Predict the 3D structure of the following.
Amino acid sequence: MIWLLLLLFALLVLIRVPIAFALGIACAVAMVFLSDVPLAAIPHKMVNGIDSYIFLAIPLFILAGMLMNAGGITDRLFRFARVLVGSIPGGLGHANIFASMLFSWMSGSAVATAGGLGEIEVKAMKENGYDLPFAASVATIGSILGPIIPPSIPLIIYAAMTEESLGKLFLGGILPGLLIGFSLMVTIYVMARMRGYPRDERASFRIILQAGREALIPILMPVIMLGGIISGVFTPTEAAAVAAAYALVISLFFYRTVSIPELPRIFVKTMVTTAVVTFIISTTAVFSMLLSFEEAGTHIAELVLGLTKSKYLVLLIINILLLVLGAIMEAGVVLILFIPILYPLALSLGIDPIHFGVILCVNLMIGVATPPVGMSLFVMSHISKVKVEVLMWAILPFLIPILICLLIITYVPEISTALPDLLMQS
């Protein structure tokens, strides 16, 4: 049944049937012809598949990111990043990555990071003498930090499907995200030296202090959020509500950059985005149910372990598989489809589940900026007016440091587990 399910799903995707419908139709056909499971189980499982407290965090973090975008918070973050690192060779490129890291603490989505910061960053770099493909490629690659540095929608999905601690997963993404950000800044520095890109004059302490004061209020949001999770004041899901409320208050009352008449539009956009995500999750719940009935995870684990029992080699195979799938499929879909298969395999090899969740997330975020279907590529192509094929070539040099970081994160698990073990021992 599994082969029919996978082949039918692939065929429907190839003829451009939306992912959620392709999954639902493939599952229904497989159940009719090759399973004793009644079709009535489909709506039941679709409802139960999204009936999780953790999933409440998804619309709340999406809302927080949209309020930050609408409230002009991204301008303040970029100005602050620019005065801090703009004097380094390739300064605006560094500011781009640093601002993406700051915004990552608030969005949880690569596309939101690209859309929120991309236009500001590309415009500033173009006006200061950077070539447009380079500017667009830096903004694109910086966006992958959004779901790695917490909050992270992919890690929320992983936590819900595996019942692992979301707080530990959030903490597990911090050091890998910072490592990737640092590696990108090193790459920008080298390219700036080779190509003679400009840099800003060193900002005075007074200017840094002023920019920091303007950005302080939004920067406090992740401090409050993570501080509350670590101290046990609120759960990660409640932290999402705090983040959304905080973004609403500062945009509406403190900066006054969002008016009350604009709120319905923001809320509707949030609901539409949430509906798309949760519809896909609900249909993949049916897919996961069929995989469970067929014991697909056990069979695949036995197959892989029959070839090798080395967890290091298995991790390499998983990385290659996810990099390929992430480049040709939407990241969230790959995550939801393959967690029921790969998670049991990882546990059987003694791989730490927090570490494994971070590996999955990093792999799939590389796909967001990788040809041929990386969503951030298309978002940035639209924003910058750079052709997708030109942007694809421009982004290739940045994939080298990211792949090196992926290997480091994969084979040095302490990078992902040190903070969770230190701050959330229970």
About this structure: The CA atoms of residues 409 and 415 lie 6 Å apart. DSSP finds 21 helices and no strands in the chain. The two ends are 41 Å apart (CA to CA).
